[in-house]
Amino acid sequence: MQQQADNIVHTLKSKSLRVTPQRFAVYANLLARADHPTAEQIVQALNQNVPTSSQATVYSSLQTLRDAGLIREVLLEEGVCRYDANVAPHHHFRCKCCGEIEDIAWEQFFGLDLQNLRPGLRVEGYEVTVYGMCDRCDSSTAT
Amino acid sequence: MQQQADNIVHTLKSKSLRVTPQRFAVYANLLARADHPTAEQIVQALNQNVPTSSQATVYSSLQTLRDAGLIREVLLEEGVCRYDANVAPHHHFRCKCCGEIEDIAWEQFFGLDLQNLRPGLRVEGYEVTVYGMCDRCDSSTAT
DNA sequence: CTTTGTGCAAACGATTTGCAGGATG
DNA sequence: CATCCTGCAAATCGTTTGCACAAAG
Q1: Per the CB 3.0–4.6 Å rule, which of A124, A138, B20, B41 could disulfide with A133?
Q2: Domain ranges across chain B
């Protein structure tokens, strides 16, 4: 627990981010949960008992953490942006029904038996987004 | 051209959608373009010369067409929803620089040489979203 | 102390909605 | 002619911003 807290403080410092209670709370909360919460859900979670962080601060902390590469945004739904403290490459499983999102380890994908991602998941399809540079941008950027 | 128009009318009717000039225009526009426009871009395109469809109508037409399975939404960016008249399964390439989106044929993906999607594209990474039903939802739905 | 973060409330952009009039099947 | 669609403007939702005060290094 204390160990965990020290780690967070250390990680933030290593990115030259000031360690404020709010920022700490946002990051700690995200690290502690396996779902992929929206900004709003994080605000809720942090202020459940005692008000600790304003909405604006949570949004700004999320941006800061994202820019530092400590968290990533996940866009699987329209309208909302979800966050994930797992920055290692990995894929996502999304339930069409409840919208629940589950991580799929990176290695599992290529050559994977999609019908057996894990017992209990019924896979109906998948979509791949490849990202990189297109020719036009590539040539306009200094080579 | 006329052939094309008839096809659109026919397709709309086959989904029991009323054929209104606005709805026709939205669908025709989406079928005619290869990019993945936002609702706003479609509004622009349709009203470029003569005002033909209000913003609200375009949004509602897009919803209707989506519900009918004639178009699909593509979420590759935060904040905006893009639309695609290509409802066949396929993947996307997104340029990190200009944001341009290009379709990748479905068959190409598994066992694909990502470095040679097509000459000119520099691939930096990819993400997969698998969708389906999770155990919880699966059991709550009548089996 | 200087810099950066916080909180509030107002501003914003994308999308939705309520409602009256109009077009479609 | 009953139903569904359109257009306008106001409303809503998620997110951002301006600014004065407070806290961190």
Answers
A1: A138
A2: 2-84, 90-141
**E strands, A52-121, in order:** 72-74, 82-84, 90-95, 101-105
User: CA nearest A73 in B: which residue?
Assistant: B78
Interchain proximity B93–A134, CB inside 8 Å: yes
Residues from chain B contacting residue A122 (CB–CB below 8 Å): 132-133, 138
All residues at 6 or more sequence positions from A135 whose CB lies less than 8 Å from its CB, including other chains: B120, B121
Q: Which of A116, A81, A129, A130 is nearest to A101 (CA)?
A: A81
Q: Tens of pLDDT along A89-141? A: 888 998 887 888 888 887 656 666 777 788 888 888 888 888 889 988 888 76
Interface of A with B in 72-101 (CB under 8 A): 73, 75-79, 81, 89, 91-98, 100
Report angle CA B88, B72, B87 to the nearest 5 degrees: 10
Q: What is the CATH number of domain B90-141?
A: 3.30.1490
CATH number of A2-84: 1.10.10.10
Give strand pairing partners of A129. Answer: B92, B127
Quick: pLDDT tens for B25-66: 999 999 999 999 999 999 999 999 999 999 999 999 999 999
d(CA B23, CA B96): 32
Q: Is the CB of residue A79 inside 7 Å of nucleic acid strand D?
A: yes
CA pair distance B37, B40, nearest whole angstrom: 8
pLDDT digits (tens, 9 = 90+) for B111-131: 667 777 888 888 888 888 888
